[in-house]
Amino acid sequence: MKQYLIQKLISLLPVLFGVSLLAFVLGVITPGNPAELALSQGGYEPTPEQITEMEEQMGLDAPYPVQYLRWVGRALTGDLGTSYSTRNPVGEELARRIPVTLKLAACSITLTIILGIALGCTAAAWQGRLPDRIVGALTNTQLSLPAFWLALLLILLFAETLGWLPTSGNGGPRYMIMPALVLSSASTATAARLTRSALLEEFGKQYCTAAMARGISRWRLVLKNALPNAIVPVTAMLGNSLGGMLGGSIIVESIFALPGIGSYALSAVTNRDYPALQGYVLLTGLIYVLITLLVDTVSMLLNPKVRLGGKRI
Questions:
Q1: I want to staple 27 with a disulfide (CB 3.0 to 4.6 A). Which of 124, 175, 220, 274 is the partner?
Q2: Overall average pLDDT of the 141-161 stretch
């Protein structure tokens, strides 16, 4: 297992390099002079001499490879630059906002696990019957409904019509219900379909056939026999969904006015705040890589047949 984790870490190093390079190139290819943008916030028009002086201070007069190495070196120490719009360190802004995004992602993945697996088990247990068709219609609707449209429908129903839930802000559990439902909708449908497919595949194997021949009930067969073996591909999908939630929370956080890193990234795009955007890309890329490593480790523990280099771990 130790050898497996070491090789996985080594294999992820090129991904981390690619993420850091993408974040750096993002600031290079974007239109406008970073030094001028940093000076011109608030409507101030800097002089050419001021721009030249700022370029020297920011190290923009050095070749791009040198700039990249300097930027990576600062990033490794936690220095992601200073935001053009707020004048605050980007690292501090991200550290202050990421707990909100993590809380939203945790609520969303919890809903995905509970609802997705429950719906998938229900559909598989009653394959071809009414519950299966209802789950199929529900998942089709979830996958076809855009997130922003679902958010507006939930706000209209639960906030404006019934007055049960708040529409914005970051507070107690009630504030996370609608955002989590929106963010988890598509992944819940995917988890339900994958669970159903994996269970039906297990039903066709000999141990399930023998269990049914002994008169075991369908639900006991699903929960006790088939689900432990069918959960491995679902686990991998849930890990990918968690990474997507962390990186794709921009729309949800903007609609429900949640002060997370998603809304921070959207504000950075609007204000052409490239250091903030670079920090966001680097942070979300790092989180996604760590989640991938965690998912691979959990899948390996759940599935003893995982092999590395032709040998059982």
A1: 274
A2: 90
